[in-house]
Structure formats: C-alpha cells, structure tokens
Amino acid sequence: MKVWIDLISGDEMVSDSYPHTIVYGGAGLEVRARYKTKGIEQIAIASDDLIEDDGTGETVVDIVDAFKYNEIPSFPKKDFMAWCKAYLAKVTAKLEERGQKDRVDGFKKGATDLVKFIVGKYDEMQIFAGAKYDMEAGLCVSWQKNQEDDGPTFLYFLDGLREEKF
User: Fold this and answer.
1) Within 10 Å of residue 114's Cβ, how many Cβ atoms?
2) Which of 8, 76, 141, 150 is a plausible cystine mate for 137, CB 3.0–4.6 Å?
3) pLDDT tens digits along 11-42
4) What is the count of structural domains for the chain?
5) Main-chain dihedrals φ then ψ at residue 42, nearest 5 degrees
C-alpha cells in the first residue's frame, strides 16, 4: 500500500486504497471517497456475546474519517488564493531542494490549471486541512463530481506529497 504524506506538515493525507487518478499533467491527484456509517458495529460483552449494530451511527466520508481531516468551514476565495500562492512557492522550493528542477515547469502549469478548476467551482468545494490543522501545509478540496457518485471526489497537489510504501 502507498500512502501520500504532506511535505510540509508530515500528515498522512491519502492512500492508494481509494480509487485515484493522476490529473493536471501530474500535478494533481483525484481520489474518490465514499460515504460510510460510523458507529456501533459490534460490542463485545463480558461474556463474549456480540450485539449487532442497532442502526444508529453517524454518516461520514471515509477519507475524512480515516485521515482525520479538519474542515475549514469559512475560507473566502481570496484567502484560498493567498494560500495557493504561498503553498505553491513552498512546493516549488521543495522540488528544487530534492533535485527535481526539471519537474518545476510541469508542476507550475498543472498546479495553475488545478487552481483555476477549484476557483471556478469554489462555491461547490469543501476545503480540508490535515490532522495537524497546519494551514501552511497542503490542503485538499472535495466536491460532488457526479450526482450518482457514492461520495465526494478529493483533489490534492501531488507534488506537495511524498509517497511512502507500507
């Protein structure tokens, strides 16, 4: 299994166990999430008998729950654009530090296209920070790509993540 970890915060952001596609010239990662019910699944009683789920529980998005994202409920578009400018500069610097200068132009073009897409649908987007709620680090966005989908689709800046195999 591969896990993508934010270069700035060190937060685990997503894994390849979710359906995913690399988009925007390799600068973006699009991941499909699902809604699931979280709650009482089975309760072990002292006698080792099991009680099945009583039907109560909370509906959550699997990726948000698994990686402990923090939704940013009020993030005006102008603040998002300011975050993008600073974050993309950090990622560019990280690429150069890691000896990936040949990737910088492709990243800038793909990331610019990704930002344009997000801004164009900004009213439909939810924005999330990782588990540490580090607003200087990578954020991800989600939206309901297709109404018939079982959950939202998430977008990440792929060059701002490092891949780790487990």
Assistant:
1) 24
2) 8
3) 999 999 999 999 999 999 999 999 999 875 54
4) 1
5) -150, 140
